[in-house]
């Protein structure tokens, strides 16, 4: 789980490719846009940048399927008012750097904004504990505390990320996850994907936010140039 200096070069290249994929995708996310074109642009950007196939499929889902968070067959066209959930990774020499976003097409609802605020605030709080001296369980505790205080217990997951590295099919996940009670200690030079996934089936509202970090002796280093800003189209 602790990456060497040579491995970190591949991880950082993978993160750059993940950003390139989002660069290629944002212009295609609009009313009338095609999930097929979006998915092709994302994967094509990774290949064009010299990257590899991911160890598992990119996730794409809009409308009601934005709440699915699993790969599915079939592609739809985006409506004037829509939501699009994407989970993807840049890949370099099989090293992965994952990202996750729910993009709103049209005017975001109040619920979208409320859930985004919960995602952003929780990740920012996690950045304060994603450091040596804490455990993977500590990270999950921060996630569950904030989500539960905001009444989102029913809509959150029981994990909020995992370790990434050189992986092959069927998954880009390494074994250790951020879940309750995980005693795995955080050490410098780990590549860790932190994701917030909120699926409010009652209102049909999806919101996700995630990026990969490199741990250090102190504050973690976010590997994406995008930051945590809300994306709407």
Q: What would you say this structure looks like, in words?
A:
- With 233 residues, the chain is α+β, with helices and mostly antiparallel strands.
- The chain has one domain: Creatine Amidinohydrolase, CATH 3.90.230.
- It is built from 4 helices and 8 strands, in the order ααβββααβββββ.
- The chain has helices at 5-25, 35-48, 110-127, 136-149, and strands spanning 59-62, 82-92, 95-105, 161-164, 173-177, 191-200, 205-214, 221-222.
- Strands 1, 2, 3, 4, 5, 6, 7 and 8 form an 8-stranded antiparallel sheet that branches.
- Helix 1 (5-25) packs antiparallel against helix 2 (35-48) and helix 3 (110-127) runs antiparallel to helix 4.
- The mean pLDDT is 97.
Short description:
This protein has 233 residues and is of the alpha+beta class.
What structural category characterises the helix and strand content? alpha+beta
Task: Tell me the radius of gyration.
Answer: 17 Å
CATH superfamily: Creatinase/methionine aminopeptidase superfamily
Output the CATH topology: Creatine Amidinohydrolase
Overall body shape: globular
State the domain count: 1
Instruction: Let me know the number of strands.
Output: 8
What is the helix fraction of residues, given as a range?
Answer: 25-40%
N-to-C SSE series?
Answer: HHEEEHHEEEEE
């Amino acid at each position: 789980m602790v990456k060497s200096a040579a491995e970190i070069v591949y991880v950082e290249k993978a993160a750059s490719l993940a950003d390139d994929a989002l660069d290629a995708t944002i212009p295609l996310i609009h009313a009338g846009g095609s999930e097929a074109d979006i998915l092709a642009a994302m994967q094509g950007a990774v290949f064009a940048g010299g990257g590899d196939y991911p160890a598992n499929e990119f996730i794409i889902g809009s409308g009601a399927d934005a709440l699915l968070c699993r790969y599915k067959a079939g592609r739809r066209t985006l409506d004037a008012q829509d939501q699009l959930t994407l989970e993807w990774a840049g890949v370099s020499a099989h090293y992965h750097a994952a990202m996750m976003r729910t993009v709103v097409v049209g005017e975001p609802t109040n619920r979208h904004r409320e859930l985004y605020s919960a995602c952003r605030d929780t990740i920012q709080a996690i950045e304060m504990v994603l450091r040596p001296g804490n455990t993977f369980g500590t990270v999950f505790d921060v996630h569950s505390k904030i989500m539960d205080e905001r009444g989102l217990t029913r809509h959150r997951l029981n994990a909020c990320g995992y370790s990434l590295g050189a992986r092959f099919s069927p998954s880009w996940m390494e074994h250790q996850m951020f879940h309750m009670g995980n005693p795995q200690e955080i050490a410098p030079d780990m590549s860790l994907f932190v994701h917030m996934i909120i699926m409010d089936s009652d209102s049909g509202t999806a919101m996700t936010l995630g990026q990969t970090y490199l741990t250090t002796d102190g504050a973690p280093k976010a590997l994406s140039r995008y930051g945590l800003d809300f994306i709407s189209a």
